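== Sequence, structure tokens ==
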Amino acid sequence: MKHVIVLESDRAARADIADFLSSQSVRTTRIDDGQHLRRILAREIVDVVLIEVKSNEDIELVREVATLTDAPILILSGNLVAEDEKVRGLEAGANDYICRPFGYRELSARVAVALRERTGPRIERVRRSYKFGDNELSVQQRTVTRSGLEDVKLTTAEFNLLTAFLSTPRQALTREQLLAASRIHSGEIVDRSLDALILRLRRKIEKDPANPQLIKTQRGSGYLFDCDVKVEERLRLKR
């Protein structure tokens, strides 16, 4: 079964699109933010990505996603879109640009075309690990390895939090961003427990958790991951 991601800010529209594609025997994942999309691309096989674009930030997300997956990217936009905006989206890495209003039969046909164009041999990026300082995070195993020490297994929330930091090194992240990155189900992580989660993660990756050098507190804003990060990938010819 093909896997399609639907990134749409409007809850009702997101549900309608996902329900229709599901009725066409397509597995759909509904999301409403880029951080969630990054997490999915890091650990799952995706065949098509539908991304709502309303701003320059959304265009930059398209550009980033195009470097993370070879899955076709279809932009969903409003009905008043200038040609220049469409060109920007396509140049950022999108394979198609669908303007509202559109019918679901049209959407299904465009998804089918994108899937057909993807059926030939292609190079697939397979993310293996992140390296930071003396540590290495295995994405598949969700473990942190450090020379001379026993591997450390991460919980789902710890893994999501750490990958959020590793995706944006040396950039301050607000508490709201980190809460969203750590949350799997609504309400699983609440604001008052974020500091406890940070503390647990520090104990697992810091040499001296009492004097953290990796995850640093930014007073009044949130936290910052203060280390260079290297992403290890392998390339595979996939048919």
